[in-house]
């Protein structure tokens, strides 16, 4: 148990240091200090800074995927699934504002192997939500449109909106979040719904 706890502390600390300093400027000593462990302890778990960085990115991606899976169940109907995705997206961005710095400062260190792995995870999630869109089509809830492009438009719009709202002051966040979600979902459902003649 202590092994897992120490490893997680190191991964969590590395995320903060990489976000603040970038991969090249981050030192193992900085990560060790942030984690409250000796520098040598890091090497008990990771052979290099690169391995630690890649593990941190993968753990973060898997955590986001798990959060989505935990909040969206198969017994939900089409509307409930899209609403749940919207709320989870806002939660992720609000609680992980360092994502932008992590990606912006460290993108050049995403090698082909890591990029391929992330692409696989992204495609799995896109395929899942394409399936949700197809459910909406098959049930007659939404019009017969290309589910892939509908998914990309939904997630893309949600991405930009959540980033905008989640960088507001905390005092304004809750109020603006609900207003933004209501507006976004109203527009999306109105555009997707099947018109009855």
Automatic annotation (TrEMBL):
It comes from Peptoclostridium acidaminophilum DSM 3953. It comes from the Bacteria. InterPro entries: Homeodomain-like_sf, HTH-type_Tx_Regulator, HTH_TetR, KstR2_TetR_C, Tet_transcr_reg_TetR-rel_C_sf. GO terms for biological process: negative regulation of DNA-templated transcription. PROSITE patterns: HTH_TETR_2. Residues 4-64 form the HTH tetR-type domain. One of its GO terms (molecular function) is DNA binding. This is Transcriptional regulator, TetR family. Gene3D superfamilies: Homeodomain-like, Tetracycline Repressor, domain 2.
